[in-house]
Design brief:
The protein has 94 residues and is of the alpha+beta class. The protein has one helix spanning 48-66, and strands at 3-9, 13-20, 26-33, 73-80. A four-stranded mixed β-sheet has the order 3-2-1-4, with helices on one face. The N and C termini lie far apart (35 Å).
Amino acid sequence: MSYVLGIDKGTTATKAVVINAETGQALGTARRQTPSYRPKPDWHEEDMEGTFDGVALAIREAIEASSVNPAEIAAVGVSGHMGGLWALDSGGSR
């Protein structure tokens, strides 16, 4: 049997779901709030470490809730909020 992991990195929350690829049944889901800062009107900023940690926790919680062996996840799909800039240093680190 194979499974897929879907991740939606939203402006207010990150959602993760593990789905049975054969039946389409959601087996485990998780949601983590996305802390944001609004230093000026219409601005949206996030702490990279906090964002990364929230996404990682949502993934972990969805997998744990599904009781699926992570090695059986055949594909990962990711969607993200609108446009944005994710700055990395010269080594590719966040």
